[in-house]
Design brief:
alpha/beta; about 350 residues; 10 strands; 10-stranded mixed β-sheet; Spore Coat Polysaccharide Biosynthesis Protein SpsA, Chain A; 2 domains; about 45% helix
Length: about 350
């Protein structure tokens, strides 16, 4: 059995997908690379996927599907995964080969000791035009090089967050938790990094810079203008995350887990709110109110906690002057966090 299955969702990705694939090829038979062609029709993505699968039949599998969006490509990868662990690498990103090699060797050892549910590493914001790339590191948050549980998690700064980029899950855990991402919806990577967490009991953190998260394409989903244009999809993901956390019974789970999931949801509420504020229309402001009302209808106490947080306060300052202050705070945060 393979140690790790890696899904690469591809949609008209011919100009960058090979860099992604080649960053994992040196790992050989330990890795299963699943190139999921999400109905590409405008370029040679399907042909490139097939050529790599033919050249490396023991490592690479090409899977073609009708266009279902990024989430469905992740679902398809999971359905086809045979490895003990599962990771997603977007086709415009890539991994540090040596870091991944270290992780795979560690996973082999961990399997002899009962395995883990989630392995975490560091990731790099590889933003176009920025000389000093921002590193998202977690040595201040998690114990290094040892199996631990949620209670061992220390304080996470506002500028830190676990994303799909630095997560490796046990494949069976994702199936056990019923993870199915929605079709034709962007920003579902947040659900991937959120919904399975209550099922995670055994964690492991390696202080290696595994993932390069490329930022800078004009058509990229995290581009500010693109996000505003797709705000209804962001709202859908936001509400699904509200549904996940409010449906969970935390009575027998770590308080650190609930705290982290609350912080994560707070950040997503902030992203949704600022994009709607930036949109500037009365319709957008009504949608913003509706999202916060939805949270309140699901869990009054959680609503009050998030609304009273620093981010919640900044996103809900009253009037046009308050909204200008919200935008100003967002612009300042951009410089420190490094997103588009």
């Amino acid at each position: 059995m393979k140690i790790l299955s890696v899904a690469i969702p591809c949609y008209n990705s011919e100009s960058y997908m090979e860099k992604c694939i080649k960053s994992m090829l040196p790992l050989g038979e330990d890795v299963e690379i699943l190139i999921v062609d999400d109905g590409s029709q405008k370029d040679r993505t399907p042909q490139i996927a097939d050529s790599y699968a033919a050249k490396y039949p023991g490592i690479i599998k090409a899977v073609h599907q009708e266009n279902g969006g990024h989430g469905e490509a992740v679902n398809t990868g999971l359905r086809n995964a045979t490895g003990l662990y599962y990771k997603v690498v977007d086709s415009d990103d890539w991994v540090n080969t040596k870091a991944l090699e270290k992780i795979i060797e560690r996973l082999k050892v961990l399997e002899l000791e009962g395995g883990v549910d989630m392995l975490l590493a560091n990731f790099v914001y590889d933003k176009v035009g920025v000389h000093h790339k921002k590193l998202m590191r977690f040595a201040n948050v998690f114990p290094r090089d040892e199996v631990f549980e949620w209670d061992a998690m220390r304080h996470m700064r506002q500028t830190q967050y676990i994303l799909m980029h630095n997560i490796i899950y046990r494949t069976q855990l994702l199936k056990d938790c019923g993870l199915v991402l929605p079709k034709h919806t962007f920003y579902v990577d947040n659900i991937f990094a959120f919904q399975p967490l209550p099922y995670v009991k055994r964690l492991y953190y390696m202080d290696v810079n595994l993932y390069h998260y490329f930022i800078g394409r004009d058509d990229q989903s995290v581009n500010e203008k693109v996000m505003i244009g797709r705000i209804d999809q962001q709202i859908r993901v936001n509400k699904m995350m509200i549904d996940v956390i409010t449906a969970e019974d935390f009575s027998d789970k770590s308080s650190q887990l609930k705290k982290y999931m609350t912080i994560y949801l707070t950040k997503i509420m902030t992203v949704t709110s600022i994009m709607l504020i930036l949109s500037g229309t009365s319709e957008a402001l009504e949608k913003k109110k509706e999202v916060w009302d939805y949270l309140r209808s699901k869990d009054e106490a959680l609503y009050k906690e998030i609304h009273a947080s620093l981010l919640g306060v900044v996103m809900n300052l009253p009037g046009w002057l308050g909204r200008k202050c919200s935008i100003g705070a967002y612009k300042i945060a951009q410089k420190f966090v490094g997103f588009n």
